[in-house]
Amino acid sequence: MISFGPVPSRRLGKSLGINNIISPKVCSYSCIYCQVGKTIKKSSVRESFYKPDVIYEKVVKHIDQLGSENYPDYLTFVSNGEPTLDINLGRSIRLLKKTGIPVAVITNASLLEYESIREDLSPADWVSLKMDAGDSDKWQKVNRPAPGLDFEKLTESKKLFASEFRGILCTETMLVDRINDFPENLTNVAQLIKNLNPAKAYLSIPIRPPAGFSVKAPDPEKLNQAWQIFSDMNIKTEFLTGFEGTNAGFTGNIYEDILNITAVHPLREDSMIKLLENDNAGYEVVESLIRQRLIRVSVYDGKKFYLREYHLVI
Which domains does the chain have, with CATH numbers? Predict the structure, then answer.
């Protein structure tokens, strides 16, 4: 299947997914947490998969079958592998732009040293770059790149792409318990991201671990710490922990407000109290959400924060 959805996305609204990589999975990484599954063919060499005309025809046909309530906000390349391995990616993006719908690409950013790939991504409206590791050793451990790829070259190529790209640039950092959730790595990653000046940096967790590998999400305390480290560097940061809150502000429904806000970022105690006051609600609302394991308390730098609780799905 080339296209699927649309699926709801806090990042992109209604996102119609596009898989431009023919099965089995072909990727330049074999990340320990990958929810697509094991990389069958690890490669950093671009090749031809589907013809761009075929992708365009399939996507247009899919769009024509959708009702107005499901019309996509974005056409998103989210592939069975790494989308930039498709040598025809640039042509496919340009064809899809004819639909008038913005095009997004979620990439592991491992191949941005190649000018042809940076050029292929240039017409996209929104691009997300993977940023899991702050040094080469951690990169090898978490992302397990294809032979021949170099971390320093990768870092410089991301900065080059960020300086050239005119669309919306975001980053995504997947945090894995006791692997890359330590303050030293988080600080290093945050510094690398700050150098790119993205519109937003997303912190995500593995909610569906791959079979055969013991991957766990960090504790909420570690997520809180990560968010604080990123925020201290003035990076606009949000969580992607499996919750797609409809809003991140005051709506008048105190339960929804608390759950939506804490799904996006930690809510400090004084902000929680202010939110309760705005809605003429008492602290028993918070206690109820804690008892239901919908939110959790975390302390950072002597201050109390509330985070959305999450439950791993296996």
Answer: 3-240 (3.20.20.70), 254-308 (1.10.10)
